[in-house]
Design a protein that fits this description.
single chain, 355 residues, alpha+beta, Glycosyltransferase, 5-stranded antiparallel beta sheet, 3-stranded antiparallel beta sheet
């Protein structure tokens, strides 16, 4: 079990003590299977993105062997085209429950691998995982559209879906920049990736019409900031414009309008986006509010329907706990987490000359 000494970086007054962080990390670790897979919770499915989110949280607490096991699971189960299925039954690669291959799910490996390397300095790990990351980026960029946005997925039969999601593309923007950081570190230039991230950033910043309208979802509101595509005054303007629509003071962030439902994952991600903007005080407020979702075992309920005063759904997900630990780690000064989310040291790619 993780000791309180290893979670000292996760102490955040009003949010987590070292002992509470230790309990939460132990909860994520208990969810992880012996093969390294981290499902949402035992008996539920695994998806690659949330699996990585939980692995990154383990790294913030010094559980590097467990995090590495999670990445090794991905390396063993990568498909020949560089992708992963969208969902696996409780982490069982032999029984995928969704054979679609989603671009943002596949891209996030770059964020996780770079975060793990920054956390550990493990050169051998980086060497093993580089081909995995490179293949995943080629799969993702194979879905990039002429306007720069990234198509949502490939269907089970391989048919590409050109429709693009703003949240997914914003997450991919961060992932491509982490992949470029890996490439630069290895001194292996990737000009196609540089062009791809430049076009993608331009689309997010200037062409909302190129993405499906999912403005009812809070993720579409803050993800362009969390992913690093929107910064400075543009980020501030976006947050202020929709703050009152999505934020429920004292409770957290709505997942989708107009539902009276706040969720821990979205709330923690908004807190992380606020930290990226330099608004740590507001980020701390959000994180303190959602402690009402904390269960007695140190894990977190996915959400709360405030109109009914009811926890819903009645599940404690590894990724909800993971997102909270990552936000706490950033606010608490964990260097690896700060680097992958602040974007200050990540390459920006080559911006397009027009359009």
């Amino acid at each position: 079990m993780t000791s309180p000494e290893r979670t000292e970086r996760l102490i955040l007054p009003g949010v987590l003590t070292a002992e509470q962080a230790t309990q939460t990390v132990a909860g994520i670790a208990a969810t992880q299977r012996a093969d390294g897979a981290i499902p949402w919770f035992r008996g539920h499915h695994l998806d690659p993105w949330d699996h990585i989110e939980a692995a990154m949280a383990l790294d913030t607490a010094g559980e590097h062997d467990r995090a590495e096991a999670a990445y090794n699971w991905l390396a063993r189960h990568q498909l020949p085209d560089g992708s992963w299925y969208a969902a696996y039954a409780d982490g069982d690669a032999d029984t995928p429950t969704d054979r679609g291959r989603e671009s943002n799910f596949c891209a996030y490996i770059a964020v996780g691998v770079w975060h793990h390397y920054l956390s550990t300095g493990d050169e051998a790990f980086l060497e093993r995982m580089w081909p995995v990351v490179a293949a995943a980026m080629e799969f993702v960029l194979g879905l990039q559209q002429p306007g720069g946005q990234i198509g949502w997925k490939r269907e089970p039969d391989g048919t590409p879906v050109a429709d693009a999601l703003l949240t997914g593309s914003s997450s991919i923007y961060q992932a491509l920049r982490c992949a470029l950081a890996l490439a630069e570190y290895r001194e292996e230039p990737q000009p196609d990736w540089e062009l791809g991230v430049g076009w993608l950033g331009h689309a997010i910043q200037h062409h909302p019409e190129r993405f499906l309208d999912k403005s009812r979802y809070s993720m579409d509101w803050y993800y362009p900031i969390l992913g690093g595509a929107l910064t400075g005054p543009a980020a501030k303007e976006r947050i202020e414009e929709h703050w009152d629509r999505f934020v429920v003071p004292g409770l957290g962030v709505r997942c989708i309008l107009p539902n009276p439902w706040v969720t821990g994952g979205e709330s923690a991600e908004l807190a992380l986006a606020l930290w990226v903007m330099g608004e740590s005080d507001r980020a701390l407020d959000i994180l303190s509010w959602i402690q009402h979702l904390r269960a007695a075992n140190g894990m977190y309920w996915t959400g709360y329907v405030f109109a009914d005063d009811a926890v819903w759904p009645e599940e404690q997900t590894s990724w909800t706990a993971g997102s909270i630990l990552l936000a706490v780690a950033a606010l608490g000064g964990d260097e690896a987490t700060m680097q992958v989310f602040s974007g200050e040291r990540l390459p920006t790619g080559l911006p397009p000359d027009c359009c």
